UniProtKB/TrEMBL annotation:
Protein known as: Transporter
InterPro entries: DUF6691
Alphabetized UniProt keyword annotations: Membrane, Transmembrane, Transmembrane helix
Highest rank taxon of the organism: Bacteria
Pfam families in the cross-refs: DUF6691 (PF20398)
Residues that span the membrane, as ranges: 42-60, 84-110, 116-133
Length: 141
C-alpha cells in the first residue's frame, strides 16, 4: 500500500512541476537572470511550496506516526555547518548552470529531453562519488 501512495505522491509532484513549467530549464534560468528578461514565476512556485511545507510541518509536529503508520522522524538539528554551506553552494551552482534540480530533471527525463538525461547521469555520478567518499571517511574513523 505504501508504494501506491508513494507513486501517487510522485505523480502529483511531477504534474505540479509540469503545470507550473518548472520542468523547463529555461524557466529556471529566466528566474536567475536578474539583469536580463527576469521571469518571477519561480518565486510564486517557491512561495506556494513554502506555504504548503509550513502547514505540513506544523501538522507533523503534532504527530508521532506517519499517515501510513510508520515512525515519524523529523529533523532536529538547526546547525549551519560547513557541509551544509558547501552542499548548498554546490547545489545552487549546478542548478544555475543546468537549470535543473533533481525533481524537474527526472520529470524532464520522463518526457524524453536529452539535456535531462545528461543531467541525471551526472547527478547519479555525483551521488556515487559521495557514497564512495563517505564510505572511505566512515572506515577511517
Amino acid at each position: 500500500m505504501q508504494r501506491i501512495f508513494e507513486f501517487f505522491i510522485g505523480l502529483v509532484f511531477g504534474l505540479g512541476l509540469i503545470l507550473s513549467g518548472m520542468s523547463d530549464p529555461s524557466k529556471v534560468l529566466g528566474f536567475l537572470d536578474l539583469t536580463g528578461l527576469w521571469d518571477p514565476s519561480l518565486a510564486f512556485v517557491m512561495g506556494g511550496a513554502i506555504l504548503v511545507g509550513l502547514v505540513a510541518f506544523a501538522l507533523a509536529r503534532k504527530r508521532t506516526t506517519t499517515f501510513l503508520g510508520g515512525a515519524l522522524k523529523l529533523p532536529t538539528s538547526n546547525d549551519i555547518d560547513k557541509r551544509l554551506v558547501i552542499g548548498s553552494l554546490t547545489f545552487g551552482v549546478g542548478w544555475g548552470l543546468a537549470g535543473y534540480c533533481p525533481g524537474p530533471a527526472l520529470v524532464s527525463l520522463g518526457s524524453g529531453q536529452s539535456k535531462a538525461l545528461i543531467f541525471v547521469v551526472a547527478m547519479l555520478a555525483g551521488m556515487a562519488i559521495y557514497e564512495i567518499a563517505q564510505g572511505k571517511t566512515s572506515r577511517s574513523r
